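Hi P.,

Sorry for the delay on this. The queue was packed all week, but I finally got your sequence through. Input first:
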Amino acid sequence: MSAATINPHEAAHFGALAADWWDPHGSSAMLHKLNPVRLAYIRDRIDAHWHVDARDRFALAGRTALDVGCGAGLLAEPLARMGATVTGVDAAPENIAAAREHAAGQGLAISYFAGELAALPPATFDLVTSMEVVEHVTDPAAFIAELAARLAPGGLMILSTPNRTMLSKLLLVEAAERIGAVPRGTHDWDQFLKPEELTKLLEGAGLEVIDRTGLSPSAAKGFTLGGSETLNYLVAARWP
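Then the structure:
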């Protein structure tokens, strides 16, 4: 993330959670519940985009992936296990330190960088992901433009973000923070993007939205794909 998009208060907030990031019962417990569902969507889009057999364990073999706002590596590590050469970037140095330590313990070679996306060595990537990040930056349009600049021709971009609805304000901000499901100060509802707003930003960066789906709480599964986009949604985009 560039100096124009990093919010230092947001970076400090998430950096303070770094030591707890990999604890499925800690402050990042919600992310651990979300991650398998997001991964299922990402894998489905990978298979469709590159015509990969769903049974292939190494769906990203020979490809490069960039995870922006990677935290301590909850998504970067599964992408590496799918065979990708992975780069992760995050605004909080504490997160990157935790990510490097955890990847080393797993025997995974992932390149991690703290700070600005623009400060990375010049390169484009086959897959660009950014989960629950665009609502935390100071300039969403500039942020999306930077993501697009890192997407290789023929590549795939996947984003997720909360929707700006009254229900998301009630459940994701007020209720979730009150009961401790997410740490206080995690969300600013005014920064949430409606699907049509994010689509406009992606199209403004020259990309084409090829898929969108809702991500909803489920009493049986924790979270489920499809159906309502009222709380959260995922978007896939590519170069036209």
